[in-house]
Amino acid sequence: MSAGLPNFSIDPNRMYGRDVFMSFKGCILIPGLYEEAKSLILYFGSLLRHGLIPHKLNERGNPRYNTRDVCWWFIKAIRDYVEFT
User: Fold this and answer.
1) Per residue of the chain (85 residues), what is the pLDDT tens digit?
2) Residue 77 burial by CB count (10 A; 0-12/13-18/19+): exposed, middle or buried?
C-alpha cells in the first residue's frame, strides 16, 4: 500500500489508477466507504478515453493513459461496488 508515496499524501490529483482499483475492495469497500467508492468510480469513469482508464494523474490532474490493465481493474471495482452496495 505504500506504492506512490509520498505522492498520494501530497495532492489528491496525483493518483495511480492501477493502485486505486487494485486496492479498491480491501481499502474502500470492506471498510464501508461507499460514497468515496462511488466518487472514485465516477471520477475515473469521466476520464475514460478510447476504452482506457488513466494510470496516472499528475499534479495538475492531467491523465496519462500508459497502461492497458487499469480498465480491467476498473471494471472489477464496479462489479465489487455493485455487490457490496
Assistant:
1) 455 555 555 555 567 788 889 999 999 999 999 999 999 999 999 999 998 999 887 777 788 898 889 999 999 999 999 999 9
2) buried
Q: How far apart are CA 40 and CA 20, in angstroms?
A: 9
- Cell 469497500 identifies what position? 29
Residue from 20, 14, 22 nearest 63 by CA: 14
DSSP-derived letter for residue 55 is S
Which residue bears the cell 486505486?
20
Whether 17 contacts 56, CB under 8 Å? yes
Q: Which residue has the cell 501530497?
A: 10
